[in-house]
Design brief:
Blueprint: H1 2-17, E1 21-23, E2 30-35, E3 37-38, E4 49-53, E5 56-61, E6 74-81, E7 92-100
Length: 101
């Protein structure tokens, strides 16, 4: 019985340790899943990165997470909409506060 419990604990540790998480878990306005890309030049001039979720583009920024570490990686992000956006026909603007790879 102890061996089964030990094996189960080891397997659970391996599965959970494969996920990288940054930020603090709390309630956020937005949850998005997709691949992070650099923003590049745009007409709307905001956001450092972008993600597409359910066919819709979102501009991203974060003051607490280095989004460059996740370029071309599939992630789930949580955050809040930035007030006053979108502008210039641009996408919604999200302040990323939590990320799971």
């Amino acid at each position: 019985m102890k061996m089964k419990l030990l094996l189960f604990s080891l397997i659970m540790f391996l599965f959970t340790s494969c996920e990288k998480e940054e930020g603090i878990a709390t309630n956020y306005q937005v949850e998005l899943e997709g691949t992070i890309h650099e923003m590049g030049p745009t007409i709307w001039m905001y956001g450092t990165h972008k993600i597409t979720y359910n066919g819709k583009l979102y501009a991203l920024k974060s003051s607490t997470i280095n989004l460059d570490k996740y370029i071309e990686k599939r992630v789930t992000v949580w955050g809040d909409q930035v007030n006053g956006y979108p502008v210039d026909s641009g996408p919604e603007y999200i302040e990323v506060k939590r990320l799971v790879k």
